[in-house]
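Entry 14. Structure prediction run on the chain below.
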Amino acid sequence: MATDLTPRVTTELDYAGAERLTMNMGPQHPSAHGVFRAILTLEGETVVGVDAVIGYLHRCHEKLAETLAYVQYPSIASKTDYVAAMTSELAYVMAAERIAKIEVPKRAEHLRVLVAELQRVASHCLWLGTWCMDMGGALGGGATIFLYCIRERELVLDLFEKLTGARLLYGFHQVGGVRYDMPEGFAADCRQTIDLIEARLLEYEAMLEDNTFFLMRTKGVGVISRQLAEEVGISGPLLRASGVDFDLRRDAPYSSYQDFQFKVPVETDGDCLARYRVRMVEFRESIRIVRQILDGLPEGPISSRPGVKAVAQVRVPKGETYTRVEGPRGEVGCYLIADGGPKPYRMKWRGASFSNLAVLPFIIPGHSVADVVAIMGSVDPVFGEVDR
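Output returned:
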């Protein structure tokens, strides 16, 4: 039997850059933060185009507002940004109170700010943990910082459970005030919790800012210039990380924020690292506000209206208004039209995540596929308020 002694030749077929590949990232991708679908156009590993597709989580929130009474809808509003339910409820009840010219007792206003800032801490814990897990192996698998952040978030949810009986969706706010006052021992538990979280922020920063891989994955990645930020209309930590010094709590105070001292963090680099740094300062400033409330919480009623005995009990006179609050992801707004009945005539919701997502097609192209995950996680979208 003859033996073929002809040497074998190996031909390497490399990518020459003349072909583009279209790839779906999401809506099932674990780093899609819900149900986001990004249609990526790739040249090799480099993204050259992004088509953002939303709508997989549409639940008719705005239409539901026309069928539910003013005393019913706050529990539905909390399901928009379900990671920051306290903030969503507040935007809605403030709109009804402004049209009806309803005064809110001082104690209730302070309690509203208290839960809003505790909610900001809990939301940022979830953001930091999931973002680091998204970036994965470079951070020791990412699971360590995730578990630490969830551990601290659970402490805040313990406080909410003591206050309202719920851990995710609360029904805390009502037109004219709040439903629940602080139970006995709550203030001491709250102080203990925020002291612990504040100390552990140093652990988070040591784990991340001394990690070369973390800095490589975030510094100079996903840059949003000041001009782009203003043109697209982003808000919250994204806006402040791009050099725009604006925070509704300070620049258009609502509830009782004018009574408290806090710093608005601003960074100018506009990249993932800058957004991280803004939120880390926000952790501490929220804790600072909570301490001020606990030190000076006024006595008095928690609502200017009697307890609700029927869903049609609260009626709002004809009028329309737009109210906005500074949520963990940015401006949350509620445009409400009342016709004098127990239900709104129309309601339109502005979700911070919806506007912030509009910046992705501008900042992702030119980065690798792996960077898409880091960029998107730094935006911190919650799709309940995107699709509504």
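The radius of gyration is 24 Å.
Filed with the rest of this week's runs.
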